[in-house]
From TrEMBL:
It is an enzyme of class 2 (transferase). This is Tryptophan 2-C-methyltransferase. Signal peptide: none annotated. InterPro entries: B12_rSAM_trp_MT (IPR030969), BchE-like (IPR051198), Cobalamin-bd (IPR006158), Elp3/MiaA/NifB-like_rSAM (IPR006638), Methyltransferase_Class_B (IPR034466), rSAM (IPR007197), rSAM_horseshoe (IPR023404), rSAM_sf (IPR058240). PROSITE patterns: B12_BINDING (PS51332), RADICAL_SAM (PS51918). Its cofactor is [4Fe-4S] cluster. GO terms for molecular function: tryptophan 2-C-methyltransferase activity. The gene is tsrT. Residues 2-148 form the B12-binding domain. It comes from the Bacteria. Keywords: Iron, Iron-sulfur, Metal-binding, Methyltransferase, S-adenosyl-L-methionine, Transferase. GO terms for biological process: methylation. Its EC number is 2.1.1.106. It holds the Pfam family Radical_SAM.
Length: 552
């Protein structure tokens, strides 16, 4: 028996299921501090989650309930599906079943945490890594201390007022105590009741996951991650990371996707992780790491030959590379380091793809179309030049979700200045022009964040940006819910049908059967049913044969 019981709930109802890694991390820290922890996972019971909650809370009275909110919505311009209403329904049900206070966190949650504490009407929240803070809160509640003594905690004062308990800051404005457990291995389990079941997720989703470092110090205009995860890199201890990989592969979870924002930034650390995997494989013929298949997210630089060689030897199975575009005029001021400098050119991308192809590692390149300055000409150039790359799959998306603290979102709010909408701001569910206010014009942080997900009447209205310089009718651009249909069609026209097999394109209802959205994607669900594992994109070129049953 531990000090007291903390219950962690996973409300993610999207399939294929993704292991709620965060809950293993929180469990590790809470257990290390002497708490009992139950994980109530609703993902595999998405059709009867109410029953699960009623049965669980009928028998258990935790002192604190934690809810993880991984995604706010699909962030996919052509299928703008929201998850917040489902999450709120689950949280409301927990409130009727348990008197325990509720705390929420998660990467999606952290993209608008003040607004979501208010929206879910819960007493507490956390932005960014939450293991230190949830342990602090559980101890404060247990000992009768005020939650206001927990640095970094978001506290709901009611009436739309949410405050952050200011942490003590040290060098370069970083908190004195790291909110992240960067030293120990996180406990990963399979088949243990009331814990995250890593093997079940692997069988049901084809991937496990592993974190080697947290945060991102870069400042790409479209990106929510530096703000939501942390604006600096916190490296995890190399031994602990590889111990964890060994534990997962021993449980039969062979395909591990990195959950770093980008695996190759802080390249010395990435190499050390890979060297440690190789060292164990070379010295121990029985280590389950021989079964490891590692899938990584990477930027085009830094990426030298040594990194490539180490990746191959460590068991890398595929690289998801994000050059995002090919043209300097579009990338300038967009893909930049924390200091505002561009960190790669398209020549770097071309050379890197050639080197990786030589090493026979599959690559998917991601291209993000529709950012400011995009025209039919720049889009044409981007498609042509990326199709020339020697890669297994090229994925194109059109339009970007604007978030309260992504550089693009901040800029859009400043340019609207609470007075006018901007050409390019769009939401499928908007019923009036989208007029954003900068933070300084809002009465509270809650008001500032909320406008990126809800309209004035409280309806879900996620804000997207699509370049108004693309070949759309003026009426489409003027309408708050206009669809960039011409641009989607243009994209399809730019790709010769001989290339369709290896290309992921945005779709519109009725335009095509192919869909590159991960959430409840029919092809993906079929892959899982047939027992495929590994990154979704690696099977994409064979999708027609797989769907028609020609390959199993
Ligand atoms: C890897 C990844 C993927 C992989 C996952 C592979 C795998 N098996 O894990 C794939 C490609 C499959 C994927 C899919 C999707 N993804 Co994704 N993904 C990521 C990525 C890079 C890592 C997520 C992760 O596991 N992080 C590591 C964990 C440990 O960190 P964490 O969850 O933040 O947890 C910490 C804190 O948040 C906090 N915390 C978390 N929960 C809680 C709870 C409490 C109570 C407390 C106190 C604290 C707390 O403490 C934790 C430990 O420090 C993130 C971006 C990022 N850098 O995190 C995007 C990201 C989470 N994905 C995103 C999205 C949108 C999706 C999709 C919906 C895309 C789509 N339309 O199909 C799908 C989701 C489908 C689903 N079933 O949920 C968005 C979410 C944005 C948002 N606002 O909602 C992100 C942020 C990417 C982005 N830049 O926008 N994804
Ligand atoms: S490198 Fe850029 S795109 Fe990648 S996580 Fe960092 S800020 Fe986001």
């Amino acid at each position: 028996m531990g000090k007291s019981l903390v219950t962690l709930v996973n409300p993610n109802l999207v399939h294929p299921p993704i292991t709620p890694y965060a809950l293993d991390i929180l469990t590790t820290s809470l257990e290390a501090d002497g708490f009992d922890v139950d994980v109530v996972d609703l993902t595999f019971r998405r059709d009867d989650w109410g029953t699960v909650l009623r049965e669980y809370f009928g028998r258990h009275q935790p002192m604190l309930v934690g809810v993880t909110v991984r995604n706010t919505d699909t962030i996919y311009a052509q299928q703008q599906r929201g998850f917040l209403a489902d999450h709120r329904a689950i949280i409301d049900e927990i409130k009727t079943l348990s008197a325990a206070p509720i705390i929420a966190g998660g990467v999606g949650f952290s993209s608008m945490p003040f607004a979501l504490v208010d929206y879910f009407d819960i007493p507490f929240g956390v932005k960014g890594p939450g293991e230190g803070i949830i342990v602090g809160l559980a101890n404060a509640l247990l000992s009768g201390n005020s939650p206001d003594t927990v640095p970094g905690l978001l506290v709901n004062r009611g009436g739309g007022r949410v405050e952050k308990i200011v942490p003590k800051l040290g060098r370069r404005g970083r908190p004195l105590a790291s909110p992240l457990n960067a030293t120990t291995s996180y406990t990963r389990r399979s088949g243990v009741p009331w814990k995250v079941d890593n093997l079940r997720y692997y069988r049901g989703g084809g991937l496990g996951n592993i974190l080697t470092k947290n945060g991102c110090a870069y400042s790409c205009a479209h990106c929510v991650e530096p703000d939501a995860k942390g604006t600096y890199f916190t490296r995890r201890a190399v031994e602990s990371v590889v111990d964890e990989m060994e534990a997962l592969t021993a449980q039969g979870v062979y395909d591990l996707h990195t959950t770093d924002s980008e695996f190759n930034l802080v390249i010395a650390h990435s190499k050390n992780v890979l060297r440690e995997i190789i060292r164990r494989k070379d010295t121990d013929h029985s280590t389950p790491l021989h079964n490891l298949k590692l899938w990584i997210y990477a930027q085009p630089t830094p990426f030298d030959d040594e990194l490539l060689d180490l990746l191959v030897r460590a068991g890398c199975a595929g690289i998801n590379l994000a050059p995002d575009h090919v043209r300097d005029d579009v990338l300038d001021g967009w893909k930049v380091s924390g200091g505002g400098r561009r960190f790669y050119t398209f020549d770097d991308v071309r050379a890197l793809c050639a080197r990786i192809a030589k090493a026979e590692l599959p690559v998917m390149v991601e291209v993000l179309l529709g950012m400011p300055g995009e025209t039919a000409a720049t889009m044409t150039d981007a498609v042509r030049r990326t199709l020339d790359l020697d890669v297994a799959v090229a994925g194109y998306s059109l339009g970007i979700r604007a978030f309260p603290y992504s550089p693009l979102g901040i800029r859009m709010a400043e340019r609207c200045a609470g007075r006018r909408t901007l050409p390019g701001l769009q939401s499928d569910s908007a019923v009036e022009p989208i007029v954003l206010k900068p933070r300084a014009m809002c009465a509270s942080i809650v008001e500032y964040e909320r406008q990126f997900a809800f309209d004035d009447a409280g309806r879900f209205r996620p804000v997207y940006f699509l370049s108004p310089d693309l070949p759309e009718d003026p009426a489409t651009i003027a309408a708050p819910n206009g669809r960039w249909v011409n641009s989607v069609r243009l994209l399809w026209d730019l790709v010769p049908s001989s290339e369709y097999h290896r290309v992921m394109l945005p779709t519109l209802p009725g335009l095509t059967e192919d869909d590159n959205n991960y959430a409840d994607n029919p092809f993906l669900l079929k892959l899982i049913e047939l027992g495929y594992t590994g990154a979704f994109w690696s099977h994409w070129p064979h999708r027609h044969a797989i769907m028609s049953g020609a390959v199993a």
